[in-house]
Known about the structure:
Elements: H1 2-15, H2 17-22, E1 46-48, H3 62-68, H4 82-93, E2 95-99, E3 104-107, E4 118-124, E5 133-138, E6 143-148, H5 153-160, H6 165-169, E7 172-178, H7 181-187, H8 191-212, E8 215-217, H9 225-231, E9 240-249
Antiparallel strand pairs: 1-6, 2-3, 4-5, 4-7, 5-6, 7-9, 8-9
Amino acid sequence: xxxxxxxxxxxxxxxxxxxxxxxxxxxxxxxxxxxxxxxxxxxxxxxxxxxxxxxxxxxxxxxxxxxxxxxxxxxxxxxxxxxxxxxxxxxxxxxxxxxxxxxxxxxxxxxxxxxxxxxxxxxxxxxxxxxxxxxxxxxxxxxxxxxxxxxxxxxxxxxxxxxxxxxxxxxxxxxxxxxxxxxxxxxxxxxxxxxxxxxxxxxxxxxxxxxxxxxxxxxxxxxxxxxxxxxxxxxxxxxxxxxxxxxxxx
Length: 250
């Protein structure tokens, strides 16, 4: 209990009003705004995605989707369609518009100061029209950037998810990587609170999008940080996984 109180006081001192008012952020110091997303290599393989509006929803009533939303861990061996994947990517990190000389992105989910400090990685096993592998979502042009393949990925992803086999065997697993400097540039240490909230906004939209397609998903916060970052080739400092969610047919 004493240790918990000590940690609580440290958090209060870090996130408190005094710290926020007295520290200047890099934005206040005139540092150039960091890029909204990672660069795409010139020789990268790009997968075009169909317009998200092309998917046929199974449920069109948002009240029905909210009421029916639940965590689902059992999926069939069926493929999900590329149209369904396109819609879920748009629902979770889709671009609505760029403003202020394309330096700020407005997306389909809220984010503190419109910083949107996440990259969406996908481990794809069974999606129609897409070769299995690890991909990154490019929200600016609504495409997928092929990253690499992983030998025996189902076993390795299951191990990274501390034995949750449905994560490794799902048709697709979303993995959201946080890039903390995107928030720190504007809000310094206070951005860390907002990033946790932002991750929840993203995953809830996936729940609702999956529900509207009659697909199943579940939020995953139990994983080995070291193993999942290594699997997706992230440095674990400037970019690291904060949340995952497998998706599959029911």
